[in-house]
Amino acid sequence: MLASVLASLDLFVVNLAFASISESFPVATPQTMSWILNAYGIAFAALLVPSGRLADRFGRLRLFRLGLVLFGAGSLLAALAPGVAVLIGARGIQGGGAALIVPTSLALLLGQYQRPQHKKMVSIWSASGSVAAAGGPVLGGLLSEYDWRWIFVINVPIAILALLLTTFLKEEPRQETRTPDLFGVALLAVAIGALVTALSYVSNWGFASPGLWGTVTVSIGTIVWFVRRCLNHASPAVDLRVFRTTSFSVAAVGMAGFYIGFAVMLLGGSLFLTNVWAWSPVIAGLGFSVGPGTAVVAALIAGRTRRAPRWLAGLGSVLFVLGGTLWYFLLNDGHNSIPVMFAGLALTGAGAGIAQTGFLAGGVSGLQPDSYAAGTGVLNTARQIGSALGVAALIAIVGAGTTASSYRFAWIVLASSGLVGILSALLIREQFNDPVTSAEDGEIESVSPL
Fold first, then answer.
1. Which residues of 331-357 are buried (b: 16+ CB within 10 A; e: fewer)?
2. Most buried among 63, 73, 112, 211, using CB within 10 Å?
């Protein structure tokens, strides 16, 4: 469960500390600094799906330990980074480590208990990540107030402790499976990276720039190559057969589109507090925790309801639209709009928690039980891709903006992502199935609420 804490904590801590990190590298452009977030997200997205099969092939405990070593080493390198390039590379190492940790941690936990106790263990595992998500902004603010490097230092002893505790775990027998196509993983990372680069620099390059269209061409060409390779490879990086189910395809698109807005909310909201209102990292962290905290509570409630997935995805998306619209019309430079900020955080946070539950459940509900692992992995990858695109979009729109007006178009993107979620929810037809109780042992990639 310490591993779940590591993965959840990092997302919210680094977003809150982003402004403080940027101040340490004044020469770097906002586009360059955005790779501190996106290097992690892209590495995580590319490796998440194949990591489950790598664990089956080489042993879950071995891959889990490797993930902890990578995450801890990446954290230490980030803490000591003398420049932006090293910090970005360290974040990529962290993301790769997290991609190995997340699916293997839950599988290892379930392997220590009998099947009747699995649902309870999944709830505890998810709750540990939820607590980290809710407390992440506060911790990030406290550490950034002293020195942002401590947000990475703190990961090192946690990773070491988790590594020591693995000596008490029993390794499960390895499965005779093929090694997933690692070249395909690299193609996916290049495709996402090129698209993120194009979106990040569009405001600098201009729409007529050869650099922009060259980067877009690289992204499209690599995506086509990736898809063809997955369709023809004996052990593809991603099993594209899950997309034969209409509701799954719709849920994946909805998840990616929705998380573009979620990333805008996370980074945009924290930057607004620190750059526009000039709140200290500690106060900003305390204030911003309303969003993740509400998301956690909403996700836990949504996970226990018997409502159809499309209803949950739709309701969450509506709340997201309301939050973005509220910020667009009423959020301003003055502190008289503080209630507007908190109301928007609560609405978007609740929307994210509810909608993600709906998209995950709706996506896997039409799949066969033996496809749950692949399906949840792809949906989580779609989430990471959407988040990377959201960060790129926000940086392209806001840059180093310090006025409320510079964020207005970002709030339009936020609300628009909710509209994408609503349209996707309308096309999800299957009824709710519980992948936790239906999947085979150890086949759940991640059911974390955030």
1. beeeeebeeebebbbbbbbbbbbbbbb
2. 63
* pLDDT of 445: 43
Among 279, 301, 268, 282, which residue's Cα sits nearest to residue 399?
268
Q: In whole angstroms, what is the distance from residue 63 CA to residue 156 CA?
A: 18
Q: Are 315 and 371 in contact (CB under 8 A)?
A: no
Span 235-277, pLDDT tens digits = 898 889 889 888 899 999 999 999 999 999 999 999 999 999 9
Widest CA span of the chain, in angstroms? 62
The whole-angstrom separation of Cα 51 and Cα 291 is 30
What span, in angstroms and rounded, lies between the C-alpha atoms of 352 and 446?
A: 16
pTM (2 decimals)? Answer: 0.88
Give the rounded percent of residues in the chain with a pLDDT score beyond 90: 53
Q: Are residues 450 and 127 in contact, defined by beta-carbon separation less than 8 angstroms?
A: no
Mean pLDDT score across all residues of the chain: 86
Sign, CA dihedral 163-1-380-50, equals positive
DSSP 332-391: -SSGGGHHHHHHHHHHHHHHHHHHHHHHHHHHHTTS-GGGHHHHHHHHHHHHHHHHHHHH
